[in-house]
Amino acid sequence: MWCIKCKGPASIYIRRHNSAFCEEHYLEYMRKQVERAIEYYKMFTREEKILVAVSGGKDSLALWDILLDLGYTADGIHIDIGIGEYSIISKEKVRTFASSRGVKCYEVNLKDIYQTSITYIARKNNRSYCSTCGVIKRYIMNLFTVLVGYDVIVTGHNLDDESASLLGNVLHWQIEYLRSQFPIMPKELGFSRKAKPLCRVTDEETTKYCDIKCINYVSERCPLSKKAQSLVYKELLSQLEASSPGSKAQFYFGFLERGKRYFVEKQETLSISNCKICGQPTTEDICSFCRQMRRAGLDPLLLKSTIERNI
Length: 311
Ligand code: AMP
Ligand code: ZN
Ligand code: ZN
Fold this sequence. Notes:
Layout: E1 12-14, E2 19-21, H1 23-40, E3 49-53, H2 58-69, E4 73-80, H3 85-101, E5 105-109, H4 110-114, H5 118-125, H6 129-148, E6 152-154, H7 159-171, H8 175-178, E7 184-185, E8 193-195, H9 203-213, H10 229-243, H11 247-263, E9 273-274, E10 281-282, H12 288-295, H13 301-310
Parallel strand pairs: 3-4, 3-6, 4-5, 6-8
Antiparallel strand pairs: 1-2, 7-8, 9-10
Helix pairs in contact: 1-9, 2-9, 5-6, 6-13, 7-10, 7-11
The structure holds adenosine monophosphate (AMP) and zinc ion (ZN) (2 copies).
One zinc ion binds at residues 275, 277-278, 280, 286-287, 289-290, 300.
């Protein structure tokens, strides 16, 4: 197996592209995939301030590393969801990376602010841990980006994540979620711009990237997401990919091309107003974060005041 770039010995083969790379050209391939996504979807420019949501996992750390290597100005934000050992290790990985690259990383510690964890809030709301965690993390990311004044927030969602959630959303015809599958969501009515620059690469590809670059990441799955349905969709799509390489990308990018006019250009149908409690944008009277916090007997406004005090 020979590298398609330098014709030297290759150690990495990417089946859906039918291409092999040596380590050096594999890193270049990854940077190119990210750069192509940024340019094609007009995610951001080198003059803008980027905030990377870093969990401590392979994807968000690889993304942060690639953005820095490409010359973007990118700080990080890590949300500590307070679930014991897993949260402690995740934060450690993020801190180690940030200090090795000399970059700034903000931390928001849910347990410090509310003296409780995601599991308590989920139980009080009769909701799954993953959905509670998702609502809280998205709220914090948006609030922080707007309050601190970043141009865009980027997450490490990759092609496997996006095609799996597309499959789930289509299976259940969750039309309202299909719009958020796009790799770029523009800034609007109190929502910050959001981007997913890893949408062209897979789990396996970011893992290899981190291994080559010696980036230390949390490899364990979140203990709360063990039963997440998205893992089943990922597995199904991987089986499909094994028998028909490229089908995952075809599914996802086919949707992006054909679905745009139905799910992005029709956005005026969403009626967004300000949450009556916190003022953040929402499609209902009270946003889902405030509703969840109130049901758990917690003050939704404490988060914003704590962030404002600390920035
Ligand atoms: P997940 O939903 O856990 O697969 O995470 C998707 C993306 O959300 C990650 O790649 C990160 O960019 C971001 N993210 C997840 N968890 C956190 C966290 N605790 N702090 C900051 N960003 C996170
Ligand atoms: Zn090479
Ligand atoms: Zn609210």
